[in-house]
Amino acid sequence: MRDLHLPLNQTQRVRLEAALHELQTLAPAAASAAAVTVADTIPVNHEDNILKGHGTTDQDGEVVATLCGVVERVNKLVYVRTLRARYKPEVGDIIVGRVIEIAPKRWRLEINFSQDAVLMLSSMNLPDGIQRRRTAVDELNMRSIFEENDVVCAEVRGFQHDGSLHLQARSQKYGKLKRGQLLTVPPYLVKRRKQHFHHLEQYDVDLILGCNGFIWVGEHVVVNEITTFNEDQEKLSAEVETFTPMETRKHICRLANAARVLSALGFTLTIELIIQTAEASLSSNVKINDMLGAEFYVQTAETEAKRRADLLGRKKGGAR
Amino acid sequence: MEHVNPLTGFRVDGRRPNEMRQLRGEVGVVSRADGSALFEMGNTRVIAAVYGPREIQNRSQQVNLKEALVRCEYRMAEFSTGDRRRKPKGDRRSTEISLVIRQTMEASILTHLMPHSQIDIFVQVLQADGGTRSACINAATLALADAGIPMKDIVTSCSAGYLCSTPLLDLNYIEDSAGGPDVTVGILAKMDKVTLLQMDAKLPMDTFETVMELATEGCKAIATYIREVLLENTKQLECQRG
């Protein structure tokens, strides 16, 4: 399995295999039947003139897959949903990225897309919070907002005519992320939801599930919609003095490791599952650094198999 | 030296003339890459890693604005052959094979879907026992499919030779260095089109056809195997995702 080169002992290997097999049997039969690889013919009924979507082409009148993935059918549209691939942006997605370059009036961000994303200075809220034209002075002070290698949270604004991707950060909730960890997971593990920002009050931690598979786990910051410039300055100097408490730092590491384990096992990352895994590690007294060890992987896989079995059982019970 | 036993008809490693070496393919062996694969044909063992589509690093290399740039680097590990020798990076042989692999893969990748980006393919031979060129192409196909890069068809490659007046499939190192003709064929498996054909000796026309036929059959067998590996991997990922 991917990313998982663990020194498993005999019992652990057997247990992991059993858990994974259990997951395979629990998955709906339709899911594995709809799986296709490159150059597989997708069976369609040609009479109801279908629309070919992403990952398909036409070869001698047949619909043929060009990707490995799962066939999805929505009314007349037939497309292939990829599993392991780079991020495919949609307008309005919340993403986390890393600044790699500062160009005139814009920042370039690495977001796991086929190109670098562009964040224009004009689509940013200025730190003074006043709406006005961006001047040359603003342009010179761009490094005071984001520098190279900063981690930034933003929203997908749209595509330009040449195919490049533009971002925006027009709210206080977007912007630079500090005091935390950035994880990268395959984008197919993050589902688009209503809520991508999560404040976990019990841990005093912010968790951002970026649609591009970049996940931020960091100390909670209080979002202040109305901040004046002076206040900001005061906050800065105060910030230098107050460190993140040890307790919070431990929580950040624990949650981050939980997400790492889940992504290595290939489970969809939801906020509930991450919290559950972190709680499970706490209740079974697993140390933070032991969470990435073999035993906890096997445990997590087993718990997940049981959870899905329960879910399926409840569904069936409800149907009856 | 006799490469085919006149009595039994077996080859030096105990295979029949039209028998392939054992295949093994594994997907997802390099964790940092977008797609990666390990491919074995008998004792030949190759690892491939694909990065991209990603932002073009060197704009001067960009030829066509509307298509993705495909780059390929072939390298033999120092420990891959019998004698351990430091191999310079840009020697003629590896440059040529890099080019061959790049052109073969480019024929199948739908580059027009990924404008302003580049795809890097790195293949490294871990163990060389003849047919590294074919093994590299097969590994690259697996890795590209793993990276979720759209392709027209699965490209596979296999070699065949002609020794002791017998057409032989999938030559190993001993047979390869015997001095007979070595035909490497790469095909688009489903469309049944040839994308690569190399031969470094002369062969009479009718013999060439039988040898090429044999190599094509080998390619198709490899294609079936590769699709099995990919389908198995896709199903597993989907089931675990839940």
List the helices and strands and how they pair.
The complex is a heterodimer of chains A (320) and B (242).
Chain A: H1 10-26, H2 29-33, E1 35-36, E2 51-52, E3 56-59, E4 62-65, E5 69-74, E6 77-82, E7 94-103, E8 106-110, E9 117-124, H3 136-140, H4 142-145, E10 151-159, E11 165-169, E12 175-177, E13 180-184, E14 197-200, E15 205-209, E16 214-219, H5 229-241, H6 246-265, H7 271-283, H8 294-319
Parallel strand pairs in A: 2-6, 9-11
Antiparallel strand pairs in A: 1-5, 3-4, 5-6, 7-8, 7-10, 8-9, 10-11, 10-12, 13-16, 14-15, 15-16
Helix pairs in contact in A: 1-8, 6-7
Chain B: E1 23-27, E2 35-41, E3 44-55, E4 69-76, H1 92-106, E5 117-127, H2 132-146, E6 155-163, E7 166-169, H3 173-176, E8 182-188, E9 193-199, H4 205-241
Parallel strand pairs in B: 4-5
Antiparallel strand pairs in B: 1-2, 2-3, 3-5, 6-7, 6-8, 8-9
GO molecular function (chain A): RNA binding
Subcellular location (chain A): Nucleus
InterPro entries (chain A): Exosome_RNA_bind1/RRP40/RRP4 (IPR026699), KH_dom_type_1 (IPR004088), KH_dom_type_1_sf (IPR036612), NA-bd_OB-fold (IPR012340), S1_domain (IPR003029), S1_RRP4 (IPR048565)
Give the structure's gist in a few sentences.
The complex is a heterodimer of chains A (320) and B (242). By secondary structure, chain A is of the alpha+beta class.
